[in-house]
Every structure is written in structure tokens, then in C-alpha cells.
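Protocol step 4 of 6: record predicted structures for both targets in the notebook before any analysis. Target 1:
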Amino acid sequence: MSRTGGAVDASARSHHDLGDLPTFDAWSRYQELAPVRAAVDSRDWDAAAAAFSALGPQELALALELVADESDAEQMLEAAVAAEPDDPLARTLLARRYERISWEIRTGTWAVDVVAEKFEEFREWLVRAEQILIDVCVDHPEHVPAWEARLLTARGLELGQSEARRRYDRLAALSPHHYRAQRAYLQQVVPKWGGSWDAAEAFVAECASDAPDGSPSRALLASLQIERWLGLRETLDDEALERLGEVARASVLHADHVPGPGADSVHAELALLYTFAERHDDAAPHFRALGDDPVSAGWDYLDDKAQWYARSRAQALGGPVPPPPGAPSERETRPAAVVLGFLLIVWILVMGVMTVLMIGVALGGDLRGVFAAVAFAAGAALGVALLVGLVRGPPPPGAPSLERGTGPGAVAVYVASLLFGVALTTLSLPDALEGDRGAAFAVVLFGAMAVFAAVCLARLLRAPGGRSNR
């Protein structure tokens, strides 16, 4: 049984005995939202409006997001707007639902991967949302949820940095230190949405500078650091870790800290970042605050996020640590992995022998032997990196290194293997076409190396999780 009493879906478990995995269900984490959920489940707008009125600003912002995620909620909201056309909350929430529909159509993939028809439909729904929100902000210019929603339409409709900033400034004048809005606007100023890392750093510093001690706004750096990992494959060096420690102590670890949805998002992001860095002791207080019913901030970027969270929390808190997602258990074997491992060993041996032979050729004064020796050595290094990664299994999220197939060292190996593979395939091809069996063997060998390196490099350069353009 799950923690909430329902049966656990088999798809929610891996083949490892992880127990009940976290669901990242905000409805169940925040019991004060129960009246909202009950009203929405029964499609009773009057009860929902009453429940909204009892919430604080943080909880209200979260509740609006959760209701917007509810399938078919637009039917209730359209009826509510028809009944009370001047209700700013009903209109704003309907716009938020339209925004959510638009992103479900577009998905979180990179813009270049969205087909034209889907992109046009995505924009149509966003325009509908924007038109509603414009009217709300004209009629009720003090309505903070509408200005927050307009940050999302500005980004999706690509209205530009100055317009997005204008909207954020209007919101900040009404509600200073609005952490959810700050996280939303931060997405606007990072490079994937037309901003820059310098602009993002400046915004993070601006939010932290005038925020009170204990405020989540003091820790917006955590969101930025996750974006840098996604965009730059950037690891956490000592300076970055020190900065994270400072913002943690100034926000969610401060004596004046007040628990709530914003603080929980900070805890989740810091727990993830310290897991990246394998600083499990530093991650521990954040995992304790989150418990086994966490929020998903940051973790949404990971595939198998529930398994990664359970494993990372166990590492931080000293419990039994399950294997990484995708790793075989002690009682299991994976024939494909065994075959791949055998092929990699053969590959490494062949490349090593050929490297030694080509060194001999190079020492004899043949310049082609130098290139061939370097190419075979690069191929051997590629095989070793992949074999070690295969034996170790999936790494902790975001921990790039050569033997795990990521990071600058891996890029160098892949690029060298690709370039030398292509070059020596090209050099060997004319002799192979004339019937030289040795040259034909070289074409096959070097061509395979080039293809293998290209595939590895392409996978490495793809954004992790496939959801980084949201």
C-alpha cells in the first residue's frame, strides 16, 4: 500500500526493493490545500473560491498552479467566469489553465524539436490566456496572481526581455519577495529564453540583496545553479559550494525561516545540488526538511526522479542505499550489458594492440603512423571510459566525469575519436576500393569508431531529461 492508503502502481516501482517511492504530490504534502482539492474534485467553484480566500500568498500561488494542472478544470472555470464575469481569480485561473493546456501541447522539449502544427496550437492557447489576463490587469491592476501568470505568457509568446521585466516589476511592487514569481522570471533571463548568464546572476543578486533573513528569495541562486548545470554541464566547484552554503544559511537554515511551499522548493533544489556534488552531509538537513513526501523543484529535470530521490535521501541520511535507477540487482543479469561489456573489452584490446603497432610504424618515420597511433589510443580511451561506466552503473545525478561518460574529459575523448576516425577512414578508403584488405579492415574499424564516438557525443550534448526548455 502507498502512504496515502492506495495500491502502489507497479510502474511506480523499479525491480529493486525501494519501498514506497515519493510521489511528489503537493496536494498531499500541504493539508491546508485539502478544501481546495475537495472543491475542485467536485467541480464546485463557490467552495473552491472560499477555500482560496483562506490561504496565505505562498499557498495560494501553489494552489492556483495545482488547479491549473487539473485535467478538464477549464469546464468548471469557464462556467465560473460566465456566472461572474468580473471575478479576477476565476478569470486568472482560467487563463492559467489555458497556459497549462498550451504547454501540454508543446511539451517541454526544445523549440526546434516542436513540429509547426503543435507550435501554432501552443501559441493559440497562450494568446487566449494572454487576452484574459490583459483584461484582468486592466480591471484589477492590483491582482498579483494575474501578473504572475503574465510572466508565463510573456515567455511562451516570446514578447521580449523588456516586456517581461515590466511585468515582473509591476508584480514586485505589489508583492515584494514573491519567490514563485522570481523563479518564473529567472527562467526568462537565462540564455535558453533569450537572456544571459550575467543577467541571471544580476537578477539573483537583486532578489537576495533586499530580502529579509530566512526568505526563500535569499536562495534563488540554487535555481540558477541548476540552470547552469543544464545549460553548461557545469559542475559545482568549491566556490559554488561555498556560495550555496551561504544562501542556505541565509534562507531555509536561518533562525527566522518560515516553512512553506517556497522554502520547500529551496530545500529540494539544494538537496539536488549537493547530491550532484556528492556532498551528502550538506544535503542531509534539506532531505530531513523534505521527508519522504517532497516537492519536485529541480528533480523534475531527472528521469526516474522518484528513484533518484529515494536513493539520494538514503545516502544523505545514512539509510540502506538502493542501487541507481537502471542498475541490475545482485540477483539479476542483463544479457545485453554482458554482451556490450565483452565487445568493449575486445575493442579495448584491439585498439591497444594497434596503438603499439602504429607506434612502431611512427618510429620508423611514417607520419601516418603517428596519426594512427593517436587515433587508436583515443579509441582505447573511449572504450575504457564506456566500460567503466557500464560496470559502475548510472552515476549520481549531475556528477560528470570521464569514466561516467560526461564532463570535459569525455567530450575530449569523443571529439578526438570522431575526428581521427573520420580522418583515417577517409585516408584508408582509396586503398580499400582498390582491393587492399588491410585498408578495408581499417575503413570498417575507423568508421565504427567514428560512428560510436558521434553517437556518444550527441547523447552527451543533449539536455538531461529532455525537459530543459521550460
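Target 2:
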Amino acid sequence: MTTSLVVPAFLLLHADEKTLDRWSRIGEALSPVGVFFSGVAFVGIAVTLFLQGRELRNQREELTIAREEQQRSSAAARSHYANCTPA
């Protein structure tokens, strides 16, 4: 972490105008690459949110089915227990 802060600061303090201008032009030339990857990241996040929403809907449906099955099983067990108990 320290190296990532110290080295650029050292280079910046010891750079002349020509070097800074060259690095500035390189940075400007590479800025479309940054824009592209930002767009790709945004699309990736949007797709991830969509897939998570779909997965949550599927999970809710499965939980509803499991709850209904549990209720049916409990009702069947209660009726079986009620029929088996001696009066």
C-alpha cells in the first residue's frame, strides 16, 4: 500500500514538463478503454441483479410449495394419529 502511494508521488515530484505532458496524452488516449470497462461493469451489475431477482422468485415459489406440502403432511399425520388413538 505504501509503495502504491510513495512511488507515484516520487515520480510526480521529479518529472519535468515534457514527461508530464507525455503521460497526460497517454492517459487521454486510454480514457475510452476506461469508459468501455465501466460500461461493461454496469451491464454486468444489471445482469447480476436481474438473475438474483429471478432466483429469489424461484426460491419463494419453492418455499411456498414446501410449506403447502408440510401443511398437508401435518394434516395427514394428525388425522392418522386421531384414527389410531383408542377412545
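Step 5 preliminary note on target 2. The mean pLDDT is 89. Helices lie at 2-13, 17-84.
Proceed to step 6 after PI sign-off.
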